[in-house]
Amino acid sequence: MLLLAIDTSTTAITTALHDGSSVVAEVTTLDARAHAEHLAPGVRAALAQAGAAPTDVTDVVVGIGPGPFTGLRVGIVTGRTFAFALGLPVRGLTSLDALAHEAWLRGRRGDLLVATDARRKEVYAATYVLDDSAATRMAGPLVSRAADLEPDVRGLPAAGRGALLYADSLPLAVEPVDVSGGALADLAARRLALAPAAPDGIRQQVEPGHGFDGLEPLYLRRPDAAPAPPSTKSTLG
């Protein structure tokens, strides 16, 4: 296995490679508004770091958000295009799950809020329980003002950049802040290890319900830009 993971749902434009045992390469650039410029060079740099060629990759996983429309779309389209060009399976994972998984890898246990920057003074949020086996999502994701989350939720330890931006509402900020490609890759590799295999031993495309979430982006709200409504004025003379 050589799994390529890509996420562009947060400020981090991040990509990583996992060989089935551990993360063998990770490249991350922090830039909230230049996902398209940084992602392809990041993929090339991760492959070079691992001493691998694109044809060595066996699986692709992309973070499906929630996240801002343009940045999120860049990551999903890049992952799907890479997989299509090489005839590889491509799968999606909720990006907030990767943040919770990294907190779990760091040794955190108990209840956790993940809150990332949704702009417009809002956060993308989900709650998790972290026990000795995994980080399990309990509610969400949703988009909300941090101050409008339930009081018991606001009082939880909170990973993600939202906790830094809205410290008055989310006072218990913890690491990590942005999605790590390595954490996303590790989570995907663990779920792939539990996925059903075809009789010939080749892993097939895994549909939602087998630990993966499909490839539809989680925008949670309409994009800022939308086509203008059609004019009712006649253009006929």
From TrEMBL:
InterPro entries: ATPase_NBD, Gcp-like_dom, T6A_TsaB. Residues 32-150 form the Gcp-like domain. One of its GO terms (biological process) is tRNA threonylcarbamoyladenosine modification. GO terms for cellular component: cytosol. It holds the Pfam family TsaD. Transmembrane segments: none annotated. This is tRNA threonylcarbamoyl adenosine modification protein YeaZ.
